[in-house]
Amino acid sequence: MNELNLQNTAKQVMSLLAERNYQLVAVESCTGGWVGKIITDLSGSSAVFAGSFVTYSNRAKQQMVGVQLKTLEAFGAVSEQVAAEMAQGAVQRTDAQIALSITGVAGPTGGTKAKPVGMVCFGWAIENNDPETTVCYFDGDRDEVRQQAVEYALQGVALRLAK
User: Fold this and answer.
1) Which of 12, 101, 133, 142 fits 80 for a cystine, CB–CB 3.0-4.6 Å?
2) Does the model's pTM come out above 0.90?
3) Domain membership of residue 36 as a residue range
4) Is there a cis peptide before residue 108, judged by omega within 30 degrees of 0?
5) 47: buried, middle or exposed (CB in 10 Å: 19+, 13-18, 0-12)?
6) Crossing angle for the helix pair 3-20 and 142-162, nearest 10 degrees?
7) Residue 84 belongs to domain with CATH number
8) What string of pLDDT tens digits covers the 163 residues of the chain?
9) Can you say whether residue 89 is alpha, beta or left, with left for phi > 0 and alpha for psi between -120 and 50 degrees?
10) Which residues are in the CinA C-terminal domain (predicted)?
C-alpha cells in the first residue's frame, strides 16, 4: 500500500461523489485528518468534500459530532457504536450527504486484549439511512495501520456510492 493507491482511491471516490452530486464529510480519530489531506491533495476536491472533523479525544467526539457520553462509557471510543454515532453526527451537522468515520488503536501503545493495536472501527452514513459499521484488524506500525484505515474507509465510500 502506498500514497499512489490512496490517491487513486480518492480520485475514484471523488468521481462517484460528483456523479451523484454528493459531498463527503470525514470524522477521524486515529487517522488524525489523513482522509481530509488525501482528498484535498486533489484538484477539484472542494466540489465534493465538505470537510473533516478530527475528533481525537472523547470530548471532541461529543462536542463536534454529538457522540453520546453513555455510548462512550458503555462501549469505549474504539467501537462500532461510536463509529456509527460519529458518522451519523457528521451528516446531521453538515450539508454533506455521506460521511465516513474512523476510530481505532494505531499503536504502538494503547492496545488491550479486547482492543489490540491495529483494531479500527469504521462507520459510513448516507443521509436518511441508518449508518453501517465494521471492524478491521490491520498489521504494521502506526503509520501503516493509519494508512490502511484511510484506504479502507475510502473504499467503503466507493462501495456504498456504487450501489
Assistant:
1) 133
2) yes
3) 3-162
4) yes
5) exposed
6) 30
7) 3.90.950.20
8) 578 899 999 999 999 999 999 999 999 999 999 999 999 999 999 999 999 999 999 999 999 999 999 999 999 999 999 999 999 999 999 999 999 999 999 999 999 999 999 999 999 999 999 999 999 999 999 999 999 999 999 999 999 999 8
9) alpha
10) 8-157
